[in-house]
Amino acid sequence: MSFRRLGAIMLKELRQMRRDRITLAMIVGIPVMQLVLFGYAINFTLRDLDTAVADQAGTAGSRALVMDLQNTGVLRPVRDASSPQELMTMLRRGEISVGVVVPPDFERRRVDGREAVQILVDGSDTAVQGAAAQLAQAPLDSAQYKKAPPPQISVVGFYNPERRSAINIVPGLIGIILTMTMVMFTAVSLVRERERGNMELLIATPVSSSELMIGKVLPFAAIGLIQTTLVLLLGAWLFEVPVRGALFDVYIAAVLLILANLTLGLMISTKAQSQFQAMQMTFFVFLPSILLSGFMFPFAGMPKIIQWVAEVLPLTHFLRLIRGIMLRGASIAELWPEVLALVAFTTVMMTAAILRFRKRLD
Amino acid sequence: MNEQLAIRARGLTKRFKDLVAVDHVDLSVPKANVYGFLGPNGSGKTTTIRMLCGLMTPTEGEIEVLGLQLPKEAEALRRRIGYMTQKFSLFEDLSVRENLEFLAAVQDIPRAKARTRIDELIERYHFQDRQKQLAGTMSGGQKQRLALAGAVIHSPELLFLDEPTSAVDPESRRDFWEKLFELADAGTTILVSTHYMDEAERCHRLAILDRGVLVADGSPAELTGAIAGRTLAVHSNTPRRARRALMEVPGVISAAQVGNTLRVLTSENGGIIDRLSKVLTDAGLHGEIALAEPNLEDVFVSATRGKQPEQEAA
């Protein structure tokens, strides 16, 4: 690896970018346009939300109530907890979407007609919050309620109490924009070089495959960070979207997604024969990313097989990261499985792209 | 390997599925020579050049370039060769100077040295007033000059040029060839492909390729000498009818009309003149037949069509 050659490629990319008006317009235009367009709510009914229950009463009545809540189909218990504090931690880490608290004085509260059960909801996903809200009106018709009145259930939404959809959408939008632009820019830029014949010149020089790939990717990574900043600023200004976690963590998450997407773009470029094909392949990745990542439709509502497909998409992991950091105030370390997934994706793609890229014409 | 040879290839073959693009070509290119590749489009010139600079792997055959075995040592070879592609392959959206700066860097020329080298090239190739002009906005001749400057920026020992003048006006072509001879004088070996006869004529040595097969090679004088006595000039006042009659005669490879004269290429020397006179007389045509000086075009035609005279009817 020669830094002189690497630097030369990066400088060339930046100089070419500066003269490419359309790309320049896209760098700024796409984030602004999307941010404004997606300022609308999308709500869906949900089933099988990951749930943990802290049943501090432990009575027959409380167990029956938890069963009834489960029978609504909205909740799916995955964890047990002993205290509301533990539920909060799980919620913040993204391990669960809903926490059910049955207080020790459940029976007395029920007889008194006070609120006897509390449901904690991860409001960083408005769809989840909406689904959980319905639990308060759930038809709890077990035989036991003939003797005593059904318990009052209160739903407490965390992280987005007013249920504003912009709060939920803006962090995800960073991911959408980075997925769209980063994959396409790299894929197209390498293929364009092949189409124009520049590649034949490049491979006849001592430039190595990795210098070429990395030199292409780094300038785009810088652009991705500019776009991230743009969305954060506009989001704060137009929709008062908060950053509850560390800003540094937000950027780390962005860098992880940028690199994953850039390497994916490189991979596409080694397959595509023309710029048009590179665009088509980009959309082949982009559509499932939008639809399956949990940005547009809630992840929990998808069939198992589709969920597995979604797990392969970088955007899915980024969404969990960015919602955790920006809305739930989680630290990136708490969300390590998503970090790991993105790093793994990047490593595999980069290796594959460099291996596939041959300094030959046949 | 012979110290005097820059390139030696034996049995060089490239197949693309069913198509044999290059078929068992043997080549010996002496150092500090301008070596020409003459052949029509699709004759395998580009594929051969790509194999010789290590950009393509031969299906069969051995290549030794500057003492390096290809394709094994292709990476080491890249620092010692320059390659100018058929299509303009510098960056159209970079300026003249930016393109040269980029190439200097990827060729590992140290920064300080790169500056003086670029200044030198800009002066020698007459880009003083165009340093900031984008390469894409220049004329065909200017682009070729820039591409040549880029290909020699690291002072390669061996330079490959793939039809460098195909999109260039005659004036620029002459200038371009002047530059090539300057480089050859300085000790650079140059392998250049072309389909212009006048350019082929200027090469020290040349190889004629036809449908992937090497059909002739040698110096232009050797090549024309080898067909001495086989080219005739037929003066006739009815050249088109005379041509039709002559093409029927076995041993006539081609008859091309130049004004009122027919330039006839035959496969045997001497004796055929009497037979041709008789054919013309029998056909009731008038014609004077004389020997003509053979040129490279005759060599080319005899090498590429001589084997299949039946195609001439088409």
In whole angstroms, the N-to-C terminal distance of chain A is 24 Å
What is the terminal-to-terminal distance of chain B?
45 Å
Radius of gyration of chain A, whole Å: 24 Å
CATH homologous superfamily of the largest domain in chain B - what is it?
P-loop containing nucleotide triphosphate hydrolases
CATH architecture of the largest domain in chain B: 3-Layer(aba) Sandwich
Q: Overall 3D geometry of chain A?
A: elongated
Q: Low-confidence runs of chain A (pLDDT<50, min 5 residues)?
A: 40-44
Structure write-up:
The complex is a heterodimer of chains A (362) and B (314). Chain A is an alpha/beta fold and 362 residues long. Chain A has 2 domains: 228 residues, no CATH class; 110 residues, abc type-2 transporter like fold. Helix content of chain A is 62%, strand content 9%. Chain A has 14 helices and 5 strands. Chain A has a 5-stranded mixed beta sheet with strand order 2-1-3-4-5, sandwiched between helices. The longest helix of chain A has 31 residues. About 1% of the residues of chain A have low confidence. Chain B is an alpha/beta fold. Chain B has 2 domains: 213 residues, P-loop containing nucleotide triphosphate hydrolases (Rossmann fold, 3-Layer(aba) Sandwich), CATH 3.40.50.300; 89 residues, Alpha-Beta Plaits (2-Layer Sandwich). Chain B is 34% helix and 27% strand. Chain B contains 11 helices and 14 strands. In chain B, the strands form 3 sheets. Chain B has a 6-stranded mixed beta sheet, with helices on both faces. Chain B has a 4-stranded antiparallel beta sheet with strand order 2-1-4-5. The longest helix of chain B has 16 residues. The interface between A and B is medium-sized, with 27 and 32 residues.
